[in-house]
Amino acid sequence: MSHRVNDDSSSTWETTPPAGDGPAEPTSRFSTSSSRSRSSSDGEDGSTPRFSKKKPKKKQPFWKELLVIFSVALLLTVVIQTFIARVFVIPSASMESTLHGCTGCVNDKVLVEKITYLFRDPQPGDVIVFRGPPNWTGGKQPPGFVQGTLQDLGSMVNLSEPSGTDFIKRVIAVGGQTVECCDDQGRVLVDGKPLDEPYLNFGPGPKQQEQFEKVTVPAGKLWVMGDNRNNSSDSRKHGDPTPADGAIPVDNVVGKARVIVIPVGRWGTISDHNPQTGGR
Fold this sequence. Notes:
Elements: H1 33-41, H2 62-83, E1 85-89, E2 109-113, E3 127-131, H3 134-137, H4 145-156, E4 166-174, E5 178-181, E6 188-190, E7 193-194, E8 215-216, E9 221-225, E10 248-249, E11 253-262, E12 268-269
Antiparallel strand pairs: 1-2, 2-11, 3-4, 3-11, 4-9, 5-6, 5-8, 6-7, 9-10, 11-12
């Protein structure tokens, strides 16, 4: 007969009768979970296990960290300027006094955002930056992406000139509208109605606009003019071979000028007063 008793320490006491007629002699087998765990924690050879220390990572040289920072900054600049917004330098006085671009003064740098025109076309009163078509640039081709980006960055800190193929003007009329000059008060007419243009600058000369032929703006194009009306080479001056060819394609628009960012003393938003509705 045998009896087995289990307790919380996992010990076992077992009595086994011997073979033959002699009295039973108790034999015992006693084991504990603690002894098993102790034996399993020891090494196979009975030695105490050793714990190896990890070697600390070698610190990168400063020039490598600087290179990474520069690369990330350059990548972010390219992404932002390509898809979101970009800073342009005003190259001439054609938008005085809304925007400064005069000889001998600090030319304005303006932030031009590109998101708005993903959802709608430019409207009258918008101040836009656009790539000049061949009859505006004299056949000059715009620089490649890399060259153009470096040139624009350089122009921001006065290290290089702007590309010369980007222009900034105000939208006066859109495709299908008729533009002509002028009524008896010297105001430009769109579809026979005089424009309300409080932003106009005539300088020290007479407040009278140069005459130009009546023109119907082709579909998909914009009629643009400078605020410095008599000192602006705009749609009136680039009508070759016909006056309507002075209009620029909507597809050439880069974005809408929103804010003057430099110089700090001229920081502010750029008016998009709609001349056809009196600002309404």
